[in-house]
Amino acid sequence: MQLSLGENLFFWQREDIYDFYQRMLEQPLDIIYLGESVCSKRRELKTQEWIDLAKELAAKSDKQIVLSTLALIEAESELKTLRRLCDNGELLVEANDMAAVQLMAEKKLPFVAGPAINIYNARSLQALYNQGLKRWVMPVELSGETLADINSDAQELGFGDQVESEVFSYGYLPLAYSARCFTARAKNLPKDNCQFVCLDYPEGLPMTSQEDQSVFTINGIQTMSGQVYNLLPEVAQMADCGVDIVRLSPQPEGLEQVIEQFRQVIDGQSSQIMAIPADAVNGYWYKNAGLVNTHQS
Q1: Per-residue pLDDT for 297 more than 60?
Q2: pLDDT (tens digit, 9 = 90+) per residue, 133-163?
Q3: For the chain, how big is the Rg over CA atoms in Å?
Q4: For residue 48, what are the CA distances in angstroms to 35, 52, 69, 113, 282?
Q5: Is residue 69 part of a domain?
Q6: Distances from the Cα of 197 to the Cαs of 136, 183, 208, 217, in angstroms?
Q7: DSSP assignment string, 166-197
Q8: Which string of b and e fits 11-50 if b means at least 16 CB within 10 Å?
Q9: 198, part of any domain
Q10: Rounded CA gap, 249 and 245, in Å?
Q11: Which tens digit of pLDDT belongs to each residue from 228-275?
């Protein structure tokens, strides 16, 4: 199996973004996704700068570099950005909404279907395969059993060997998107004058219940899980389910250690499974509530 790094879902300072990706070039990753998939107001890097950075990373390494698109498009200006990404001329594109799928299909270019694309069965996967899909990232709420069934059905339909399966395996789960900005709302700011407060929360804004239980993480217009999702102990199961690529999600600190642990387990160099962090969850993989950790129950 290969190891990938998904696009950064949070909003970081410009210098931190460049520094982060230079460091990631040195890590044992096979694929790196980058770009803005959450909010078009996050403009520390402009569209062309994302494209230029992606091409620079591709030129410096043998890693596959993929450009990710917005998951929620609401304005013509965002469609213009989407067209520029799809017209980059060199790099594979991760489509995070159906507008991106349509543009890539019209250009007869291969694409990756991101986790925001609702692929829940092999027939849906086949329909996108016929439009140019070469890889799909399983929606984060699906289970390992469902994934195995989809891959098995795809084989029976005769195209299973033509597509790659990727699973979000570490990080705060991207659960939902809204036209409203929850981070701005938490600061009593309107979305149109948010003052880019997401920059103050490089790992999102924790949201707890009245019982002080971590429930969600607020990330601008995106709602994420309250705990880190960790499928490191499930790497062998993923291989049995036909998973080709294990995806990690960026975090500002400690990611190198996470990458190294996943790399060692994938390569069979280590049988020691560490929970990172100790309160990480894996419920969705087992058809359970998302905030459950089956290894502690």
Answers
A1: no
A2: 999 999 999 999 999 999 999 999 999 999 9
A3: 18
A4: 10, 6, 13, 22, 37
A5: yes
A6: 32, 7, 19, 15
A7: EEEEEEEEEEEE-SS-HHHHHTT--GGG-TTG
A8: bbeeeebbebbeebeebebbbbbbbbbbbbbbebbebeeb
A9: no
A10: 13
A11: 999 999 999 999 999 999 999 999 999 999 999 999 999 998 766 665
The answer to whether 35 touches 50, Cβ cutoff 8 Å, is: yes
Residue ranges making up the domain that contains 125 = 2-172+228-272
| DSSP-assigned states of every residue in 104-170 | HHHTT--EEE-TTS---SHHHHHHHHTTTEEEEEPPTT--HHHHHHHHHHHHHTT-GGGSEEEEEEE
Q: Which range is least confidently modeled, 1-10, 166-175, 189-198, 264-273?
A: 264-273
Q: What CA–CA distance (Å, rounded) separates 166 from 113? A: 10
pLDDT in the model for residue 277? 79
| Side chain identity at residue 280, one-letter code | A
pLDDT at 271: 62
- The percentage of residues in the chain with a pLDDT greater than 90, rounded to a whole number, is 90
Nearest to 25, CA basis, from 264, 256, 235: 256
Q: Report pLDDT digits (tens) over 40-53.
A: 999 999 999 999 99
How far is it, in rounded angstroms, from Cα 175 to Cα 116?
A: 9
- The rounded distance, in Å, linking the Cα atoms of 184 and 281 is 28
Question: Which tokens go with 263?
Answer: 């790399």
CATH number assigned to the domain comprising residue 153:
3.20.20.70
Contact criterion met (CB below 8 Å) for 204 and 12: no
Question: Domain total for the chain?
Answer: 1
The mean pLDDT of the chain is: 94
3-class secondary structure, 43? coil
Residue 287 domain flag: no
Contact between 67 and 94 under an 8 Å Cβ cutoff? The reply is: yes
Do residues 78 and 70 make contact, with C-beta atoms less than 8 angstroms apart? yes
